[in-house]
Structures are given as C-alpha cells and as structure tokens.
Amino acid sequence: MKFICDYFSLMLKSNDRFEVIGTANDHDGVMALAKEKNPDVILLDLNFDKNNTGIDMISELKKLKPQCKIIIITVHDQGNLILEAITNGADNYLLKDMPVEELQSAIIDTYENKTGFSQRLLYNIASEANKIQQRQQSLLYIMTKLSTLSPREYEVLQQLYLNKSYAEISDFLVIEKVTVRSYVSSVLKKMGYTSSKAMVKDLTDLKIFENLSGLKNINGITDITDG
Fold first, then answer.
1. Over 10-41, what HEC string results?
2. By the 8 A CB rule, do 49 and 26 touch?
3. How far apart are CA 54 and CA 56, in angstroms?
4. Which of 42, 54, 67, 196 is deepest in the core (most CB within 10 A)?
5. How far apart are alpha carbons 207 and 35 in whole angstroms?
6. What is the torsional sign of CA 138, 142, 144, 145?
C-alpha cells in the first residue's frame, strides 16, 4: 500500500494545482488525517486494508467531512462496484490505469463539481443497471405466479426449493406420494415451467423465499394469497 501512496503523491505533486497533505495505509490513519488536515479531496483505494474497503469508508468520511470530495481509485471497473461506491456517497470513481494527465484533470473536475465518467465506466454502469432491472422484473413475474398457488401447492413448492424428494415431501406433509406428484404438476403449470429442476434453479437465483422470508416459517406455512 505504501508504494501506491508514494506513486500517487509524486504524480500529484508534478502538478502545481495539487498539494498532498498526507497519506495513510489503513482506516484509522485515513480518519485521523481527515480530521486533522481537513482535505478538499481524498483519494481512496478500493482495496484498502484487511478489515476495510474504500467503499466501506465513504459514508464514514462523508459524515466526518461532508464538503470533502471522496474519489475511489482502483483497478476494478465492475459495474456493481461503481454503483455501490456512488450509492455510498463517492463523488467519483477513477481507474489507476488512466493516463496521468487524465487522472489529474478528473480529480480537478471532481473538486469543481464537474464530475464525469469515462465511456468504459459508463458502459459498465449501464450494464449493471440493466441486470438489476432484469432481476427486479423477474422477481415481480415470479411473485405474481406465486400468488396463483393454493396454500398446499405453495408448501410443496417450498419443499422442492429445499431439494426434498417426493418421498420426503410426502412424509413431511403427510400426504400420498402420488398426491405430491399431482401438486408438483399443478405447480409447474401455474409457474410456467416444464421442469421442477429449472424452476427451482430460477427461484434459487432470485432468492425468492429469502425475499419472502418463507424459509423462516418453513414448518408453519402462511398462505401468501392472504396478503
């Protein structure tokens, strides 16, 4: 971490618009410097120390120094990290492999409230936002389908979600195995699937029962159609 701090210190000092007032290698050091030196801008590495990430520290620094510009600087360009940083209050998100002049200009623009993301980051942000929208739409679709199930069908679906066999479901719900098969067939039809394996995979990917808190009451199922 120290050599990274040294590199960026030298890079910034090469431009007379910057004054480097301190560097730190861990959470406590950053907080102490922010409190003591009152910086205008803080460059925060995404991979900070073993106990903290740069993203974790943004809100804490903003609470301490609301007017200070917080810039995440990293090699990671994933859309989910960028959105998380922005959500937590970061004023900009820059990549370490940017040319020095561009990096310096981006820091100055951020300080002057003229923040702009590179095309590369904008693409990744848009891609991540699209994934989130698709997940939300899928979740709404599945929940709408779930509302068509009877209480018993919902119980059977929950047991399938827990990877229970037909025999185990039969024992748990105290119904005949042939009855379980009938319920599964009805559930598949209402949910729009031909395979219980594919259905369970989609439900697992969406963490559907965790979102509905269904698994917390697995032995005392509540009819979701009751609202």
1. HHHHCCCCCCCCCCCCCHHHHHHHHHHHCCCE
2. yes
3. 5
4. 54
5. 42
6. positive
